[in-house]
Structures are given as structure tokens and as C-alpha cells.
Amino acid sequence: RVGGVMKSGRANGQVLEWGPQRGRLTAEFEALVDELGIRDQLITAPPGLPLYVYRRGKLRKVPFSVPEFITSDVLPWSAKFRLLLEPLGPPARDDETVADYFTRKIGREAYETLVGPLYGGLYASDPRQMIVGLSLRHVLREFSIGRSMMVPLLKRGGSIVPPDACSFREGMETLPRALYERHRARIRLESPVRGIT
């Protein structure tokens, strides 16, 4: 089947995702949607919709600005202070895992509570198995992140305004299905792979 980890279905009349729960409506994503002719199936979340993580028995709101982060209960003060060291660490290496990079830069607790679940959930993958050069480098480039993640954030006013969360009426699998339909003549399913060149 096409889609890999992107698998959608219905249960009790509701869309159910076995893979990524949502995408982000970046300019590139939007261009792909238009190129594949599936804009009529696209749905977006209301702007500013809160995002939560479950930590220590409670849903906690994810902060998207420095003032929100300071007053947030999402991390203890020790983890917040650990973030002050972030600009001092070396930049990302293309050969390290995404988990290693974030843990090294922001500390284990901030990684395990916020970044790991959010980044892994967006890709429906384990950041411990994702390589920076293959999966994170383009994001770092897009946000002009070199040595530090914090410095560019503070230069932009200390707030993160992520692109709108989005999906499709029948779930995220709509995207790989549309890609398959566009390139069907060059895609073989249920075929053993004998080599890659």
C-alpha cells in the first residue's frame, strides 16, 4: 500500500489516524496540495488553537512565546534554566540523530516533554531514528538556525507562529494517495526490492 506510516481510516464515523495526526500548511506543503489538485479536501485548524502535552498526570498548554514559557507549568524551573545554556552548544551535525541534537541543545527534560513528542508526532516517527541531515536540516535552514535556536527566536520577538495545522477530510493518507495517482505508472506495489541504485 502507499503511504508508509501515513495511514487513515474511519472508526464510528470519525477519521482515525494511525500515523501523523496533522501537517503544517507551509508554503511548500500548500504548493504540493495545489499541484496534486486536492485543495478541496484540505482542512485547517483555527489559527491560534492551543496545543497541549500530557505531563505528570495533566494536560499542559504548550507555550509559543517567551513570556508564556516563563509562566508555563509545562517544565520545572530547573529545565527552564537549562535552556539558558542552549546558545553555547555547537550547531547541529548532519550525522547525529534528531533526539541527540535536541537533547544536547535543550536538555533531556525539555526534549522528552516538549520537542520529542511534538516533532515525533508531526512525522509519526521516533526522533531517535531520524538523522538531522535527512529530516531536520531543512527546518533549521528555513528558520535561519545555525549555532543557536534561541537567538533567532529572540530576534523575531520571542514568539513562534507556526503555520496552520492542517489535514484532509479523509485524513493525512489523502496526500500519499494523490501522489500515487499522479505517478502510478512509475510505482510498483507488492514488489520485492532487489537493489537500490
What does the model show?
The protein has 197 residues and is of the alpha+beta class. Helices cover 37% and strands 13% of the residues. The chain has 9 helices and 7 strands, in the order E-E-E-H-E-E-E-H-H-H-H-H-H-H-E-H. The protein has helices at 27-36, 66-71, 77-82, 98-106, 108-123, 132-135, 137-142, 150-155, 174-182; strands at 8-11, 14-17, 23-24, 42-44, 52-55, 58-61, 165-168. The longest helix has 16 residues, at 108-123.
Summarize the SSE layout with pairings.
Layout: E1 8-11, E2 14-17, E3 23-24, H1 27-36, E4 42-44, E5 52-55, E6 58-61, H2 66-71, H3 77-82, H4 98-106, H5 108-123, H6 132-135, H7 137-142, H8 150-155, E7 165-168, H9 174-182
Helix pairs in contact: 4-5
Short description:
With 197 residues, the chain is an alpha+beta fold. The protein has 9 helices and 7 strands, in the order E-E-E-H-E-E-E-H-H-H-H-H-H-H-E-H.
Estimate the strand proportion. 5-15%
Oligomerization status of the protein chains: single chain
Q: Percent helix among the residues?
A: 25-40%
Helices, by number, come to 9
Structural class: alpha+beta
Instruction: Give the termini distance in whole angstroms.
Output: 22 Å
Please give the largest β-sheet: 3 strands, antiparallel
Give the total of beta strands. 7
Strands of the largest sheet, in order across it? 3-7-4
Write down the secondary-structure element order.
EEEHEEEHHHHHHHEH
Low-confidence stretches: none
Average pLDDT number? 90
Assign an overall shape: globular
Backbone CA Rg: 19 Å
